[in-house]
Amino acid sequence: MKKGQILSACALLALVGLVAAGCGGGGKKGSALSKDDYVAALNKICTNANSQLSSLGLSNTIDSFKTDGDQVVKIGEDTVDKIKALSPPDEVKAAAQEFTEATEHAVSDLKDATSAAKSGDQSKFTQALTHAQSDSAKGDAAASEMGADGCA
Questions:
Q1: Could you read off the pLDDT of 81-108 as tens digits, one per residue?
Q2: Phi then psi for 8, rounded to 5 degrees?
Q3: Reduced to 3 states, what is the DSSP secondary structure of residue 113?
Q4: Packing angle between helix 122-146 and helix 62-85, nearest 10 degrees?
Q5: Which sign, positive or negative, has the C-alpha torsion 55, 139, 103, 38?
Q6: Quick check: 8 and 152 in contact, CB under 8 A?
Q7: CB-based contacts of 39-43 (< 8 A; 24+ apart in sequence)
Q8: What does the pLDDT look like over 51-92, one tens digit per residue?
Q9: CA-wise closest residue to 152 among 108, 105, 74, 95
Q10: CA–CA separation, 128 vs 112, rounded Å?
Q11: By three-state DSSP, how is residue 121 classified?
């Protein structure tokens, strides 16, 4: 995921960087896409999610998450749903699973960060963001392995 973005893959999530608007391409679950089509669909999902996140102007401060954390989580959850709706081809299935799981974990971490921000718990907030960054890095590696540079 690109530095300075908050949810990159779709990152949701680059603060976290991972977490989106429409996929626009892809297939129904069950009919695997070609690698090129799968990567293109992932990149589109990630680009849309990153655009939505950028428009929030979110920073990794507790005040920012108090205000916009719920929107970040919603974008992340929508992104995960779109990723899960795609059927990866066998040649990238393992990396796709790693990417999806890392993104799901990052979204969960962002939920925790938002909850901690709302309760004013700086320690839990910082811990949740640290976990989100770690999960995001795992997602970045899996996205790069597949060639989904828009998600890394």
A1: 999 999 999 999 999 999 999 999 999 9
A2: -95, 115
A3: helix
A4: 30
A5: positive
A6: yes
A7: 39/92, 39/146, 39/147, 39/148, 41/86, 42/9, 42/10, 42/83, 42/86, 42/99, 42/143, 42/146, 42/148, 42/150, 42/151, 43/148, 43/149, 43/150, 43/151
A8: 999 999 888 899 999 999 999 999 999 999 999 999 999 999
A9: 95
A10: 6
A11: coil
CA distance 114 to 97: 26
Half-sphere exposure of 74 (CA within 13 A, CB side): 8
Contact 37, 91 (CB under 8 A): no
CA distance 75 to 106: 12
Q: How is residue 112 written in tokens?
A: 């925790």
CB atoms within 10 A of CB 32: 17
E-state strands within the chain:
12-13, 17-18
Going by C-beta distance under 8 Å and a sequence separation of 6 or more, which residues neighbour residue 39?
A: 92, 146, 147, 148
User: Would you state the structure tokens that stand for residue 110, as one six-digit string?
Assistant: 């962002």
Instruction: List, in order of start, the domains of the chain with CATH numbers.
Output: 12-151 (1.20.1420)
